[in-house]
Design goal:
Layout: E1 4-9, H1 13-24, E2 40-41, E3 44-45, E4 49-56, H2 66-69, E5 91-93, H3 123-130, E6 134-137, H4 144-157, E7 160-163, H5 173-182, E8 185-188, H6 197-210, E9 214-224, H7 227-231, H8 239-250, E10 262-269, E11 276-287, E12 291-302, H9 303-323, E13 328-329, H10 331-337, H11 347-359, H12 364-378
Parallel strand pairs: 1-4, 1-6, 4-5, 6-7, 7-8, 8-13, 9-10
Antiparallel strand pairs: 2-3, 9-11, 11-12
Helix pairs in contact: 1-9, 3-4, 6-8, 9-10, 10-11, 11-12
GO molecular function: inositol-3-phosphate synthase activity
Pfam family, one: Inos-1-P_synth
Domain Myo-inositol-1-phosphate synthase GAPDH-like: 196-304
Length: 379
C-alpha cells in the first residue's frame, strides 16, 4: 500500500483538523465519504498519509506525541475524531523567528502561544531522518521569516512543500525558480477553504460577471476567536494576507476595482467564537437599465476543518508530482486549493487542470502553457 510521509510545521488548529481527518477517513468508505473533493488520487487516499515529523514552539506541544499535541492549548477547533492512536512522533522545537506576535503576551495563557524553553532542532536533518515526502507549512499569519526558513529546509532536504500560509513562496518567482531547479514540487500560497469566504466571494463575483452585472464595490469582513484571529490583531502582520485574499477576488474581474471600492480581510477577534469564523460579505452593482443591485451574505464555518479537504488534496498531488519527478510550482492544484497561486485560473478551469494531472494525461508544465494564456485572455 502506498503511503505519504508527512511533516508538519505548526501544530495549531489546522494541523489538528488535518490529523483528525486523516484518521477519520481511514474508517469511511467511498460510498459514505463526506467532505473530500477526491476520495482517491492515483492510489493515494486520505488515510494513506502518515505524520512522521512535527515542529512547533509552544511549551504545551513541544516534547509531546503529535497525537496529544494536536489537542493542547491554545488549540480550540472542533474535535470531530478524538480516537487518535499514538504516533510515536515527538513534536520538536522549531526556530521562533517571527512566529509569535509581541502583542499576544498581553492575553491569558490559554489563548496565546507559550514559547518553550528548548533549543531548536536541525529541521533539515529531522526531515531527512524521518524520510518525509512532503512538508506542510501552518505557520501563523505574518511569519514571513519562519515560512522562508521552512521552505529552505524543504529544499535542502529534498521534500515537497505545501505552503498553506500567506507568505509568497510558490508565487514568488525567485523561490519558484529554486524549487524548479531542485526538481522539488511546491503548492502554494495561502490555503483556500472548501466553502470559505474567498471561494464564495469568487463564485459570486464570477456570477456577477457572467450575468452582465457591473460590480461597483464590495467588502468581506471576517471575525473569529482562534489564535489566528488573535495574532492578526497586529495589523502589520496582515499585509500579505490582505493581498492574497483581495487578489483572489480581483482576478475574476475584467477590470479590477480601485482600492477604495474593495475591502477584504480579517476584522476582529471575538474569543468566545473559538474556531468558528463568521464572514459578512456585501456586493454592490448595477444590472439592466443601470439599476442598482445589492447582495449581502453571512457565512459561518468551523475555520480549520474547512481547510482540511483542500490541504489533503494539495498534499496528495504534491506527492504524486514527486513520484513523477515533476518539480517547481504545481499550477493547477495551487489555483484549485490556494488563494494566491503563481497563476490565478478560474476555479472550474483549475479543477479541470487538476483532474488532467491526476489522470497523467499531460504534465503540469504542459497543461500550464495553453491554460495560462486562456486564463489571461479571460481576465
Amino acid at each position: 500500500m502506498k503511503k505519504i510521509r508527512l511533516a508538519i510545521a505548526g501544530i495549531g488548529n489546522c494541523a489538528s483538523s488535518l490529523v483528525q481527518g486523516i484518521e477519520y477517513y481511514k474508517h469511511v468508505g467511498k460510498e459514505s465519504c463526506i467532505g473530500l473533493m477526491h476520495y482517491d488520487i492515483n492510489g493515494y487516499r486520505a488515510g494513506d498519509i502518515d505524520v512522521v515529523a512535527a515542529f512547533d514552539i509552544d511549551a504545551r506541544k513541544v516534547g509531546k506525541d503529535v497525537s496529544q499535541a494536536i489537542f493542547a492549548k491554545p488549540n480550540c477547533t472542533n474535535i470531530f475524531y478524538s480516537d487518535i492512536p499514538q504516533k510515536n512522533v515527538e513534536v520538536k522545537m522549531g526556530p521562533v523567528f517571527d512566529g509569535v506576535a509581541p502583542h499576544m503576551e498581553n492575553y491569558p495563557e490559554e489563548r496565546r502561544f507559550v514559547v518553550a524553553d528548548a533549543k531548536p532542532v536541525d529541521v533539515t536533518r529531522e526531515l531527512v531522518d524521518s524520510g518525509a515526502d512532503v512538508l506542510v507549512n501552518y505557520m501563523p499569519v505574518g511569519s514571513e521569516n519562519a515560512t522562508r526558513f521552512y521552505a529552505q529546509a524543504a529544499l535542502d532536504a529534498g521534500v515537497g512543500f505545501v505552503n498553506c500560509m500567506p507568505v509568497f513562496i510558490a508565487s514568488n518567482p525567485e523561490w519558484a525558480k529554486k524549487f524548479q531547479v531542485a526538481g522539488i514540487p511546491i503548492v502554494g500560497d495561502d490555503i483556500k477553504s472548501q466553502i470559505g469566504a474567498t471561494i464564495v466571494h469568487r463564485a459570486l463575483t464570477q456570477l456577477f460577471k457572467d450575468r452582465a452585472c457591473i460590480m461597483d464595490r464590495t467588502y468581506q469582513l471576517n471575525i473569529g476567536g482562534n489564535t489566528d484571529f488573535l495574532n492578526m490583531l497586529n495589523r502589520e502582520r496582515l499585509k500579505s494576507k490582505k493581498i492574497s485574499k483581495t487578489e483572489a477576488v480581483q482576478s475574476i474581474l475584467d477590470t479590477p476595482l480601485c482600492d477604495d471600492d474593495i475591502h477584504i480581510g480579517p476584522s476582529d477577534y471575538v474569543p468566545w467564537q473559538k474556531d468558528n469564523k463568521v464572514c459578512f460579505l456585501r456586493m454592490e452593482g448595477r444590472i439592466f437599465g443601470d439599476t442598482p443591485i445589492n447582495l449581502e451574505l453571512r457565512l459561518s464555518v468551523e475555520d480549520s476543518p474547512n481547510s482540511g479537504g483542500s490541504s489533503i488534496d494539495a498534499i496528495r498531488i504534491c506527492k504524486l508530482a514527486k513520484d513523477r519527478k515533476i518539480g517547481g510550482p504545481l499550477l493547477g492544484i495551487s489555483a484549485y486549493t490556494m488563494k494566491h497561486p503563481p497563476v490565478q485560473f478560474p476555479d472550474e478551469l483549475a479543477k479541470e487542470m487538476v483532474e488532467q494531472f491526476i489522470r497523467g494525461e499531460v504534465s503540469e508544465q504542459e497543461i500550464a502553457r495553453p491554460k495560462q494564456r486562456q486564463a489571461a485572455t479571460a481576465r
